[in-house]
């Protein structure tokens, strides 16, 4: 599917068909997800993929009963490792020569050491971009999706066994839509949103 078509046809779907996604399809989707950009290539996202019905049913309860969580073929809980930047950062640049690699690692350490706000902000940025990659890749694979923040973050974290230096950022559910969504809520005009050179 053409990228423009994927962007246009993506909608937040609230009702899904009973459909099983194959392991290969899920793998393919996640292979695309990890091509998303991250600052300094720290790849701070972590993805928990959930397909078992009993687990999706429990997550649905933790999502205040939003049915798309139980109905979707795949629930992805997007998380971030806040400390990925200091966990063997050499591996984020293993394909480049030593000199520029050392330069980048020095930059990473300078930027992140003692900067918990940056750790948190980058977690949200990275996962937001990855979520859009997932949704557009899903669209190209003939699937639909819904990004989600309407759930109990603490309880979902407990449910997935979130490690202490990680946070849950959002969820994306993926499946085959059961019915067409209502027309878009109403996009604002470019004139209200885009400013040439300055506000
Ligand atoms: C970060 C984020 C969180 C969202 N959380 C939910 C959610 O919990 N439940 C839901 O039904 N839709 C959720 N949405 C979907 C939005 O309502 C939807 O994107 C918006 O109304 C625009 O519709 P569209 O995605 O179909 O263009 C979320 C969207 C974003 C970007």
From TrEMBL:
Ubl conjugation keyword on record: no
Domain Nitroreductase: 7-176
Signal peptide location: none
GO function terms (MF aspect): oxidoreductase activity
Keyword tags: Oxidoreductase
Top-level taxon in the UniProt lineage: Archaea
InterPro entries assigned to the protein according to its UniProt record, in alphabetical order: Nitroreductase, Nitroreductase-like
Entry's family note: Belongs to the nitroreductase family.
Name of the protein in its database record: Nitroreductase family protein
Species this protein is from: Candidatus Nitrosarchaeum limnium BG20
């Amino acid at each position: 599917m053409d990228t423009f078509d994927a962007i246009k046809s993506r909608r937040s779907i609230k009702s899904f068909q009973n459909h099983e996604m194959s392991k290969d399809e899920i793998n393919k989707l996640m292979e695309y997800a990890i091509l998303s950009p991250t600052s300094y290539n720290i790849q701070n996202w972590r993805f928990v993929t959930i397909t078992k019905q009993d687990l999706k049913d429990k997550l649905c309860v933790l999502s205040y009963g939003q049915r798309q969580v139980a109905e979707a073929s795949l629930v992805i809980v997007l998380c971030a490792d806040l400390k990925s930047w200091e966990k063997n950062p050499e591996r984020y640049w293993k394909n480049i020569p030593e000199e520029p690699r050392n330069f980048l690692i020095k930059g990473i350490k300078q930027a992140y050491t003692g900067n918990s706000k940056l750790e948190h902000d980058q977690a949200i940025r990275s996962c937001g971009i990855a979520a859009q990659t997932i949704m557009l890749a899903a669209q190209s694979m003939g699937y639909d999706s819904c990004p989600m923040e309407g759930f109990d973050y603490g309880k979902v974290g407990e449910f997935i066994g979130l490690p202490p230096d990680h946070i849950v950022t959002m969820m994306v559910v993926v499946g085959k839509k059961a019915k067409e969504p209502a027309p878009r809520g109403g996009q604002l005009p470019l004139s209200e949103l885009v400013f040439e050179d300055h506000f």
